[in-house]
Write a sequence for this structure.
């Protein structure tokens, strides 16, 4: 690809040189009035816009404008999102344990699997763009032990007030030890729309995450770590077998899949100022909200799958009623699905760039959790709750930001 790019640049440059030198050799090119023009003439005609593109994004719960950083001087310092206090199993993409005492206490019911949270594309982290020109980014990185990370993102505005963005990310690594391969696939789609008078706003998003990890059960003896014969950690035997004796993939694996869909609609009342340019040929609106109706809907689906293609009866002694054979396949599934629907009223205090948000609302949530497909179906848990929030964001430099939020379930299994 690099060679093709160099050839393309060289051909384009030569074409421009031919047009700038009408007395040079090559009379056939000189007589062609169409191809014998310098492409820079377009700049004189105003066909090219040299203004820098205005690209920024906001997140689902923040109005602060953020700008993508595509500078190469920081790219070589790339670090995964996993912080230094997150301890994995030896390679990127495997289960992570937080070594700080930071208990995860999600509000409401939960399936309980948070070992891949540091890798996932969550709704709160998704970007809602607004750009004057189409914008794309592509990154590809290689690491030790065939570690690969690929990410592609594209965004553009359909209209000046309506944008969409899509992202896909893939990670894989085999690890330094046997049967420790981990890979993940994540993707997201976001769109946002604002009416011309800025009173109505819509935000919608979809995210998907799939994590798969081979399990080796750990090495058979940690004394091998100090043995010079095993400087290559791939030579150390592990406790769990490979699939079909192949030696590259483990017979035991864990898979976790998550998918979320979210849509938010709100309509605001407030003060609308009309701003014209110097010659009154264009108009812009500056809207300061004072009161808002807001509706949010989220659908969440999550599934965990454990598979053992070569079970050993010694590993499943706790199963008293089942005789485990080598030819069997043991698997376990857990499913979680919920619909969260909530409505709130919002009030705003202060000036346009220093607004304080006060929100109060009520919500309804329907959860369905199951560990197996039952003949009569899984039980459905319905919960109702109230919530509130006070928030002020630092929309410009030198400002303070603060936030306080609370949710209280008054019906359902998560009551209190």
């Amino acid at each position: 690809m690099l060679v093709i790019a160099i050839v393309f640049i060289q051909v384009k440059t030569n074409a421009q040189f031919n047009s700038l030198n009408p007395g040079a050799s090559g009379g056939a090119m000189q007589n062609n009035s169409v191809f014998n023009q310098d492409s820079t003439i377009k700049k004189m005609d105003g066909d090219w816009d040299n203004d820098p593109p205005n690209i920024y994004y906001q997140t689902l719960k923040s109005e602060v404008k953020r700008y993508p950083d595509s500078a190469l001087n920081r790219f070589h310092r790339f670090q995964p999102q996993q912080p230094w206090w997150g301890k994995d199993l030896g390679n990127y993409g495997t289960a992570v344990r937080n070594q700080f005492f930071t208990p995860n206490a999600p509000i409401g019911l939960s399936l309980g699997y948070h070992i891949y949270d540091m890798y996932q594309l969550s709704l709160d982290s998704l970007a809602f763009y607004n750009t004057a020109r189409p914008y794309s980014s592509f990154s590809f990185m290689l690491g030790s032990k065939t570690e690969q990370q690929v990410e592609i993102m594209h965004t553009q505005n359909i209209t000046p007030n309506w944008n969409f963005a899509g992202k896909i990310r893939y990670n894989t690594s085999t690890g330094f030890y046997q049967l420790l391969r981990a890979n993940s696939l994540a993707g997201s789609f976001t769109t946002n729309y604002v009416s011309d008078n800025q009173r109505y706003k819509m935000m919608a998003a979809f995210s998907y995450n799939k994590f798969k990890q081979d399990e080796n059960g750990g090495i058979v003896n940690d004394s091998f770590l100090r043995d010079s014969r095993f400087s290559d950690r791939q030579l150390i035997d592990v406790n769990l077998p490979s699939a079909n004796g192949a030696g590259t993939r483990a017979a035991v694996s864990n898979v976790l899949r998550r998918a979320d869909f979210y849509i938010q609609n709100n309509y605001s009342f407030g003060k609308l100022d009309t701003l014209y340019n110097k010659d009154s040929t264009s108009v812009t609106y500056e809207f300061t909200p004072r009161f808002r109706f807001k509706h949010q809907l989220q659908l969440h689906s999550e599934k965990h799958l454990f598979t053992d293609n070569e079970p050993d009866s010694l590993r499943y002694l706790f199963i008293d009623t089942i005789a485990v054979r080598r030819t069997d396949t043991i698997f376990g599934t857990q499913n979680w699905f919920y619909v969260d629907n909530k409505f709130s009223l919002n009030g705003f205090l202060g000036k346009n760039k220093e607004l304080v948000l006060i929100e109060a609302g009520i919500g309804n949530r329907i959860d369905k959790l199951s560990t197996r497909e039952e003949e009569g179906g899984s039980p459905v848990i319905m919960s109702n709750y109230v919530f509130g929030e006070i928030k002020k964001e630092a929309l410009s430099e030198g400002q303070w930001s603060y936030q306080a939020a609370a949710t209280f379930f008054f019906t359902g299994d998560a009551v209190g």
Q: What stands out?
A: The CA atoms of residues 177 and 234 lie 5 Å apart. The helical segments are 2-20, 27-30, 41-45, 72-75. Residues 2-20 form the longest helix (19 residues). The radius of gyration is 29 Å.
